[in-house]
Design a protein that fits this description.
38% of the residues lie in helices and 16% in strands. The chain is built from nine helices and ten strands. The strands form two sheets. Strands 3-4-5-6-7-8-9-10 form an eight-stranded parallel beta barrel, surrounded by six helices. By secondary structure, the chain is of the alpha/beta class. The radius of gyration is 17 Å and the shape is globular. The two termini are 21 Å apart. The structure holds 6-hydroxymethylpterin-diphosphate (HH2).
Length: 276
């Protein structure tokens, strides 16, 4: 596993897990849909998460919740770029959650330090967009598309299948000249996975270090936590923290979360114990 994450002008130590705070500039995200849909609200939310201790901010203009419809490039651009303009140049790197190569180019030109692609740079031109800059990239696994991914997903061996996919994607990205310190892998909790698949991925999360990339986990507020606790999305903060701590102990070095302050405190306890 790399010792640090290189993203744009930033080099972040991976001695302790990093917190990526999520800001969805969308009317329809499952976790916070509509709350931060204006530029002003999204920028204010990002600044709040930075004050709470986020190490990276992830902004996205397209919901990928199960059943979501995609948005046009123009609409996604209109949502994301004005927020990025205000946040880029600050003390914390900004990641842009997009699958669209055109927006990757524009985001990098506007100052994004990382591209978070749930499509793992499979779109034509996506790999070239990353190779041309010095940003980090997150390669995520998903099975199917957000429109159909939760319709009876099946695997023979979910960990082996996801690991093989991510290994192949890391190889392709490395072959394009991108250093391991710039590559993040994510098994994609909830993206074409039933509860038992998500649990098995979490149990064996440490195996994703075999890719040689930095491991990220995004479990915050997700429906797997609702299935386990019986709680609605707005009441999953305690379960989210439990999942984040488990992921950290299993080897995740970036935790993608909505509740930064609460997760920060929980991680401080884990870090204190592990320092001994
Ligand atoms: N989860 C979501 C979106 N992007 N990216 C990565 N790398 N890993 C994840 O687990 C992940 C992701 C879904 O969460 P959210 O952004 O809160 O919801 P929505 O897609 O509805 O906007």
């Amino acid at each position: 596993m790399p010792r640090s994450l290189r993203c744009g002008k930033f080099t972040l130590s991976l001695a302790h897990p990093l917190l990526m705070g999520v800001v969805n500039i969308t009317p329809d995200s499952f976790s916070d849909g509509g709350e931060f849909a204006t530029t002003q609200a999204a920028v204010a939310r990002a600044r709040q998460l930075i004050a709470e201790g986020a190490d990276i901010i992830d902004i996205g203009g397209e919901s990928t919740r199960p059943g979501a419809d995609g948005v046009t490039l123009d609409e996604e651009r209109r949502r994301v770029l004005p927020v990025l303009e205000q946040l880029a140049g600050g003390a914390v790197p900004v990641s842009v959650d997009t699958q669209k190569p055109e927006l990757m180019h524009e985001a990098i030109a506007t100052g994004a330090a990382m591209i978070n692609d749930i499509h793992a740079l499979l779109a034509p031109g996506a790999l070239a967009a990353i190779a041309a800059g010095n940003v980090a990239v997150c390669l995520m696994h998903k099975k199917g598309t957000p429109a159909d991914m939760q319709v009876d997903p099946r695997y023979d061996d979910v960990v082996a299948e996801v690991l093989a996919f991510l290994n192949e994607r890391v190889r392709a990205v490395r072959a394009a000249g991108i250093a391991a310190e710039r590559i993040v892998v994510d098994p994609g909790f909830g993206f074409g996975k039933a509860l038992e698949h998500n649990l098995e991925l979490l149990r064996q999360l440490g195996r994703f270090n075999e890719t040689g990339a930095v491991v990220m986990a995004g479990i915050s507020r997700k429906s797997m936590l609702g299935r386990i606790t019986g709680r609605d999305v707005g009441e999953r903060v305690h379960a989210s923290i439990a999942a984040a701590l488990i992921a950290a102990q299993k080897g995740a070095r970036i935790l993608r979360v909505h509740d930064v302050a609460a997760t920060r405190d929980a991680l401080a306890v884990l870090n204190a114990v592990q320092a001994d």
